[in-house]
Amino acid sequence: MVDTPFRHRVLLGWINDISTIARKGKRWPIIDLDEQTLRDYRELFPILKQWGFDTVAIWGLFISHSWEPDIEHSISEERKRAIHKLLEMAHAQGIRVLGGLGLYSWGFEEIIRVHPEVARDEGRFCWGSFVANNGVAMCYNTEHSKVWQRKVIDFMGEFPLMALRYSPPIRGDVLVSTAKRWERWSTMRP
Questions:
Q1: Could you tell me the superkingdom of the organism this chain comes from (predicted)?
Q2: CA distance 74 to 72
Q3: Helix then strand then coil, % of the chain, to nearest 5
């Protein structure tokens, strides 16, 4: 183990950023979770532990661009099993896993298409500039959007993740424990 002044060392990336094979031919981000990906993580987790990492934040564990309106069916049973297997491998090495999740801002393309009331077409100000809505980010000022975000968080909370790493549309990343997700999340205002 490497001596470090940091209390936690976290590796952050998309699920296939550590892939030992070329992943191509699909829309970015490619989030394959196949036997090769599991082998890559099986090899990675002991190395992370050896180098003093105790946490990995993985974006794309569940989806890339679109949660389905029927949230529970956004991923296959095979992928659910693979996620559980990856988490078990990490935990066996003492590595905590954070699940990456866009807060209103990533993964909602299909929900916005089917339920346009979650988006507003008047745009918004971001970092001092006007940004028109792009069909990807939900409007965080609507109750409809909050309901959809809660559905996604509840679904992800069914997995043994240590926390969810949010990327809100404006204010930077927020880390929320899945064990206390509603105590803290429901009081946050983006």
A1: Bacteria
A2: 6
A3: 35, 20, 45
Cβ proximity of 93 and 134 under 8 Å: no
Structural domain contains residue 3:
no
Q: Is residue 2 part of a domain?
A: no
1 lies in some domain: no
Q: What is the pLDDT of residues 173-186, one digit of tens each?
A: 444 444 444 343 33
Q: What is the pLDDT of residues 48-82, one digit of tens each?
A: 999 999 999 999 999 988 899 999 999 999 999 99
Closest C-alpha among 84, 19, 95, 14 to residue 50:
95
Are 89 and 45 in contact by the 8 Å Cβ rule? The answer is: yes
Contacts of 18 (CB under 8 A, 6+ apart): 40, 41, 44
- Provide the domain limits for residue 165: 10-185
Task: Yes or no: say if 97 and 55 are a contact pair by the CB < 8 Å rule.
Answer: yes
Helix (H) or strand (E) holding 101: strand 96-102
